[in-house]
Amino acid sequence: MEIFSIKNAKKSFENNLDVLQDISISVAKGEVAAIIGPSGSGKSTLLRCATLLEKMDSGELYYSGEKAAWNNEAGKTVYASPEKLRQIKSKFGLVFQNFNLFPHYSVLKNITDAPISIQKRKKDEVIQEGLVLLEKMGLSDKADAYPFQLSGGQQQRVSIARALAMKPDILFFDEPTSALDPELTGEILRVIRSLAAEHMTMVIVTHEIEFARNVADRIIFIAGGVIVEEGNAESLISDPQNDRTKAFLNRLQ
Ligand code: ADP
Ligand code: MG
């Protein structure tokens, strides 16, 4: 079953043309797809378009078969109604590079705020679930702490818990470890690995190639706003076919 797809996505900025040039990705339930590629290749823009933070110029977007965006007759993207988009936004979670926690909210409030105020779920229930998520993230003792009192790795675990609290069908990660000191990346990669073991559907932009190889079913290599190569994670890394993929992987070694 297809959980998410973006079709023929194109995006230019005023001063930056063709950042995305006809990108299509489809993700099945339980699948883990990793996106790799050089800096500036359009990975964040792609995730921002996928999660409705940025509008595509052209292209389609589907969540569980529901249309979030499609092309009009002129080939320009049209978005669903605000009400429909609100529903669709409950279907996915996004974990940013820089955590993006609310600094003036406690850890528990960061996690429970959206399920209570946006999803209108019962407060007691959401708080109970929030505490369970904190336990799962190894942060049971941090419920009342504020983000500034936590390490980067702890803040990122809170932001993963916050995304999970919405009970999303799919989670997107944009370089979740790149703002962390090297000794803290392991704890985040372990959390993502455990989510993969629970068959969480995920799209992970990462430059941790070994991690991508281990955790992902599929790797998508993007350069210059196009998908240069994609395939089975193990074979794309051990036996890349395209010269640009080879050059990119060689540079990382
Ligand atoms: P990546 O995440 O792969 O490093 P990005 O998607 O962040 O790449 O950026 C791709 C290109 O789009 C870059 O050249 C970047 O400068 C440009 N870009 C991204 N966002 C904007 C924006 N809001 N306005 C103008 N240019 C942008
Ligand atoms: Mg980026």
Q: Summarize this, please?
A:
The chain has 253 residues and is of the alpha/beta class. It has nine helices and eleven strands.
Summarize the helices and strands and which ones pair or pack.
Layout: E1 2-13, E2 16-28, E3 32-36, H1 43-50, E4 58-63, E5 66-71, E6 77-79, H2 82-89, E7 92-95, H3 107-117, H4 123-136, H5 152-165, E8 170-174, H6 182-197, E9 201-205, H7 209-215, E10 218-223, E11 226-232, H8 233-238, H9 243-252
Parallel strand pairs: 3-9, 3-10, 7-8, 8-9
Antiparallel strand pairs: 1-2, 1-4, 4-5, 5-6, 10-11
Helix pairs in contact: 3-4, 3-5, 4-5, 5-6
Residues 43-44, 174-175 line the site of magnesium ion (MG).
Throw out a few tags for this protein:
single chain, 253 residues, alpha/beta, six-stranded mixed β-sheet, five-stranded antiparallel β-sheet, 9 helices, 11 strands, globular, binds adenosine-5'-diphosphate, binds magnesium ion, ATP-binding, ABC_transporter-like_ATP-bd, ABC-type polar amino acid transport system, ATPase component
Task: Describe the 3D structure.
The chain is α/β, with parallel strands linked by helices and 253 residues long. The chain has a domain of 68 residues. 37% of the residues lie in helices and 28% in strands. The strands form 2 sheets. The chain has a 6-stranded mixed beta sheet, sandwiched between helices. It has a 5-stranded antiparallel beta sheet with strand order 2-1-4-5-6. Helix 6 links the parallel strand 8 and strand 9. The protein is globular and about 50 Å long. The model has no long low-confidence stretch (mean pLDDT 96). Bound molecules: adenosine-5'-diphosphate (ADP) and magnesium ion.
